[in-house]
Request: fold
Amino acid sequence: MDLGLQLSQLYKLQMKNFTRFFISIFFVGYIKFAPGTWGSLVSLLIMFILFNIFSLPLFILIISFILLFFLSSYLINYFSSFTNSHDSKHIVIDELLGVFFIFLFYELIFVYNDLITYLLIFFIFRFFDISKIFPANYFDKQLHNGYGVILDDIIAGLYTILTMIIINAFI
Reply:
């Protein structure tokens, strides 16, 4: 076996391992019970670190979100190709993107304190992510690629934002 072929096979193996690590958010998506819920919890922790500890400017966060969106779509497609699956339960990077989208509007949706806001984000987002209210169900069923996997969570995030704005209007 020549060295070029060995390096090619090693590269493919490493790329598959990185893809599994990335799309499952540090292998959280491989938790057997409710991987989407665990993915959402880890996503909240990541957003806490990103927004409160690093305190990055909104412009940098928006650019990061866009880059993460396209990288995630590409890696979801790659994962689906070598696992012969669509929207595998192991893919939870879409939860991270949905929660990340919500946090871009944190100033609008903040309710009383951070703990209450985080709890509301978690429960409302999970409700909308699971129920897949139109047009989330359309993207989930009609787009059989990374964008379809991600966009239903972005829409769940949008519904979460709108719900929390309404909650704020009545508090």
About this structure: The helical segments are 3-23, 35-53, 58-83, 93-103, 106-109, 114-131, 136-142, 146-169. Residues 33-169 form one domain.
